Amino acid sequence: MSCLVVGQWVVGVLDAAVLSIHAIGRGYAHATNHSEKHGVKQTDRMLGNAGSTYGRCSGRAQALRFLVMTAFEAVLDQALKLPDEEWSKLAASFLNSLEPEDGEELSRGGMGGMVRRARQATPRDLDRRRPPLNPSPAVLRVPILRAEGKVFAEGYPTLVPPSLFMRRLVARESQRQCSSCRGKLWLEPSLYFYVGFSHPSFGDVVLVYEPESFDLDPGGASPFDTVASTSTISSSPG
Amino acid sequence: MTAPGKRAYVDSHSAPLSTWRSQFARYIQPTTSRPQARTCRRHRPTEDDPTHRLRDATDRRAWTWELRLYRDHPAFDRLRKAYLSHDYAEEIRELLRAGDPRNFEVWSRRLSQGIIESVVPGQSPHHVALDDVSRACG
User: Fold this and answer.
1) Residue B98 at interface with chain A, using a CB cutoff of 8 Å
2) pTM of this prediction?
3) DSSP readout, A121-172?
4) Domain finish residue from A86, A108, A129
5) Which of B35, B91, B132 lies at the smallest CB-CB distance from A136?
6) Mean pLDDT over residues A219-223, rounded?
7) Does residue B35 sit within a domain?
């Protein structure tokens, strides 16, 4: 069963708002721009697949929920087999297909709330269920960087030449702005490092550490992207 | 976003240092079929994205994974290389000439071993470091 067909079928269920094979089939046909006959036949086949469990549902609302969640599961199971790029597109497209049209309310037995909850739960749920990646050696061996000698609003650099002889980077020495942000996020005093691509003209000293330098240490890591929303809440000043 | 919301967001997007690399791999995987391309500075953002914080049209979007270490760290422990601006390097040379000869010896050895690199005037140490890391990633 293709993801597209299941997605369109769910749209058909939502479009029809009535749980009969003909009604769903017509909704499916409307959503997919096919003939009603095609939609009804397609729906009949699908309900035939899930018939035994479907038949045990008591009440239309419960059956409707069951059908949508079954479709969700089927789509997610299919999506998990896809490469990440295709999965992202498919998941976004499928979830968007569950959005009601402008001004339309989904009031069929709390369907709107269920869809919203499913939408909220799906990304994290998908992430948990995805099989582990086998990162390439290039990713596993990316060195860790720290830029020193940066000058912030206070006008003082993070490190000056005599400090290098102390041979120690100190976690508690940090900018006021950084400490304040860290406090709000309940993060511990930290030394900040990074992998990726930072501002290349930033810092008079750049320290490059072996990739596995901190693997056994207490601490955390988070994405920090100038486009993603994490940039607005990161505790690092740099 | 409210303060509790921000905390929840950070919690949900953070990983301990012992396991962060698998999440890092997952993070960069959707953006390119070759993760190292993005890691190694070859990935360019789309030029029409108005949210990029670029200095000019040729600049690239900054993106990183931030690593937070909850302890102090000896600067030279597990250090692969240090890139120093020309001014910093000159100042250090002066300090070494006037200071403890043992320090001078240690630093001379690091320089000769290529652990410390003094970047030529006018070049950004950060830029040179990123170029070297990029080459090392293949």
Assistant:
1) no
2) 0.57
3) HHHHHHHHHSPPP---HHHHTPPEEEEES-B-TTS-BS--HHHHTTT-B-TT
4) A129
5) B35
6) 88
7) yes
Domain residue limits at A181: 135-238
Bridge-partner residues for B79, per DSSP? Answer: A209
Among the partner-chain residues B7, B72, B81, the one whose CB lies closest to the CB of A169 is B72
A179 plus A117 within the same structural domain: no
Q: Which two tokens mark B8?
A: 């929840």
Which of B73, B83, B105 is the mutation pick for testing A, counting most A CBs within 10 A?
A: B73
Using CA coordinates, name the residue in chain B closest to A191.
B69
Is the pLDDT at B54 greater than 50? The verdict is no
**C-alpha distances in Å from residue A14, one per residue of A35, B5, B89:** 18, 32, 68
Q: What is the pLDDT of residues B66-97, one digit of tens each?
A: 899 988 888 888 999 999 988 888 888 888 88
A113-117, A153-157, B134-138: range with lowest mean pLDDT: A113-117
If asked whether residues B84 and B138 sit together in one domain, one would say yes
Cα(B24)–Cα(A41) distance, integer angstroms: 45
Q: Are residues A108 and A44 in the same domain?
A: yes
Q: Where are the beta strands (DSSP E) in A24-139?
A: none
Looking at the structure of chain A, the number of domains it has is: 2
Q: How many CB atoms lie within 10 A of CB B13?
A: 19
A78 with A182, same domain? no
Q: Are residues A9 and A108 in the same domain?
A: yes
The count of domains in chain B is: 2
Rg of chain B, C-alpha, whole Å = 20
Interface contacts (A, B; CB < 8 Å): 270
